[in-house]
Specification:
single chain, mainly alpha, 4 helices, elongated
């Protein structure tokens, strides 16, 4: 009897669920396709290519371009000693307070960094060797 009661409850629940299904509409209306208009962001340098950017030589701090701050050092003294400016030292090292130097702190000295050679305007042009005629 218990099984029959459960079966009766399950069939009533199924009938109730079927009664909740909405009827399909009588008239099918056409729908418009979704249009995605994606505009890519422009690059910072319109002439930049991966090849051109890979050939750019960026200076990196070497042991010769690093200075370890000694007790009593100031940025103005270091700028005068290394023939640079306080502003260049602040920018190269990302300093927020130029008066807050700590002994043992490493500083990049921009005037000691090697200057990269400028890249040619057209890397595909190579000088053509010519033969001297006697």
């Amino acid at each position: 009897m218990y099984v029959a009661t459960r079966l009766l409850i399950a069939s009533l629940a199924l009938i109730a669920l079927v009664a909740c299904i909405p009827e399909p509409p009588q008239i099918m209306l056409p729908t418009l396709p979704a249009v995605l208009d994606i505009t890519p962001a422009p690059p910072l340098d319109i002439d930049a290519t991966a090849t051109a950017l890979s050939s750019v030589v960026l200076p990196s701090p070497t042991a010769a371009a690093l200075y370890t701050v000694q007790p009593g050092d100031t940025l103005s003294d270091l700028a005068a000693h290394f023939a640079t400016t306080v502003e260049e030292l602040v920018a190269a090292n990302g300093l927020t307070d130029p008066n807050d130097l700590q002994p043992g702190q490493s500083l990049i000295i921009p005037s000691l960094l090697p200057t990269p050679a400028p890249a040619s305007a057209n890397p595909d042009t190579t000088p053509t060797p010519t033969l001297a005629t006697p």
